[in-house]
């Protein structure tokens, strides 16, 4: 039997048991919701803050009386970023654990492996991964909270257009999100008068992207470079970029929107721009911004509870859980189909990612205004005016 991992208090341990958090209530008094997250492995920078966030807020919700008079029981599996594990755990959540909804799926690869399971079972699934393919085309029971890779491309190209940039190079990772964002960027570049004149890729285990960047540097006319990717790859690209003395602007994706990217890239990150949620710059938002109270509140609670710096990834989990809980309250039912219908009706929800307005044709509910264009200065995030 394949081992799962239970996540308790920030420690992932190999075990045949599952992680369940229900505040000590009996089974009859609980509502089971599930998650399969990449708490360990190469995508742990996504899954770890997501798992911490879900546990933290489920505890709070239960302490305040639960949902519809019942306590939430959160069942969490650690898929370690492996799509096969994720599909196995999705099946287990449905068939063995009997969850009525799922918030999770840290990566595009693990999410897409789970989608058929939840669609067939009729279980609402709110993904925390980035690629637009998750919700386009619309799938009946599948939703997501992070801004899409297509939106990231559009936000980047909008910024480039304002800077008079028309010819760019791209260097992309080979993972699911990376490939998807590369394709989305290629698809929308022409809408902004952008021509991709160099297009390079790197593998997940590559420790030096100098050869690819040297090719881009030697391509005539390159005015900026975009790096669709997440994990350690973009940090390596950024360091190599500076080592080669490339002096045109470098753009990263929202897949590196955490302090760990700045830490990994070091001084080389100075001047890098990327689209990201307001969560990273909550203290810099005007008091009139409706997101300010939400993002500063989440940031304070997360950092005080975990002792770790906040990232947008935990914020995606916060948004997913709260959208689900509000839908459960409106449905007044534990029927997955009724909950699904209420998730789809979500409007005016202010989360860490922006204002969410879903519909039958939009299972994300964010527009481009939900993204902020950030630039790294003096080792910190700043908002590009």
TrEMBL record:
Q: Which UniProt keywords apply?
A: Amino-acid transport, Signal, Transport
User: Which positions carry the signal peptide feature in this UniProt record?
Assistant: 1-27
Q: Which intervals hold domain Leucine-binding protein?
A: 30-364
Q: Does the keyword Signal apply?
A: yes
Q: Per UniProt, what is one Pfam family of this protein?
A: Peripla_BP_6
Q: Which family does it belong to?
A: Belongs to the leucine-binding protein family.
Can you name this protein? ABC transporter substrate-binding protein
């Amino acid at each position: 039997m394949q081992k799962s991992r239970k996540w308790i208090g920030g420690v992932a341990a190999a075990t045949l048991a599952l992680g369940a958090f229900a505040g000590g209530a009996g089974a009859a008094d609980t509502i089971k919701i599930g998650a399969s997250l990449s708490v360990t492995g190469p995508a742990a920078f996504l899954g770890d803050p997501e798992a911490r966030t879900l546990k933290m807020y489920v505890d709070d919700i239960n302490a305040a009386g639960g949902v519809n008079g019942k306590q939430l029981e959160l069942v969490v599996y650690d898929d370690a970023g492996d799509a096969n594990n994720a599909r196995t755990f999705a099946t287990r959540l449905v068939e063995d654990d009997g969850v009525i909804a799922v918030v999770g799926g840290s990566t595009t690869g693990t999410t897409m492996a789970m989608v058929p399971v939840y669609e067939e079972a009729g279980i609402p699934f709110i993904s925390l991964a980035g690629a637009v393919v998750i919700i386009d085309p619309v799938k009946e029971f599948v939703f997501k909270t992070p801004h899409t890779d297509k939106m990231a491309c559009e936000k980047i190209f909008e910024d480039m257009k304002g800077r008079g940039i028309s010819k760019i190079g791209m260097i992309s990772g080979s993972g699911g999100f990376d490939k998807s964002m590369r394709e989305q960027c290629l698809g929308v570049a022409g809408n902004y008068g952008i021509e991709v004149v160099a297009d390079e890729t790197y593998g997940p285990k590559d420790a030096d992207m100098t050869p690819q960047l040297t090719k881009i540097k030697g391509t005539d006319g390159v005015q900026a470079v975009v790096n669709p990717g997440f994990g350690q790859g973009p940090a390596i690209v950024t360091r190599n970029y500076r080592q080669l003395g490339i002096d045109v602007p470098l753009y990263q994706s929202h897949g590196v929107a955490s302090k760990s990217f700045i830490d990994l890239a070091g001084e080389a990150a100075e001047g890098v721009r990327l689209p990201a949620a307001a969560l990273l710059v909550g203290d810099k938002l005007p008091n009139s911004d409706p997101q300010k109270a939400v993002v500063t509140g989440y940031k304070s609670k997360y950092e005080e509870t975990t002792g770790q710096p906040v990232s947008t990834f935990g914020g995606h989990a916060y948004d997913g859980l709260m959208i689900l809980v509000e839908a459960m309250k409106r449905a007044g039912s534990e029927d997955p189909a009724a909950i699904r219908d209420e998730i789809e009706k979500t409007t005016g929800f202010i989360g860490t990612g922006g204002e969410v307005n879903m519909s039958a044709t939009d299972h994300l509910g964010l527009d481009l205004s939900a993204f902020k264009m950030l630039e790294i200065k003096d080792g910190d995030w700043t908002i590009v005016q």
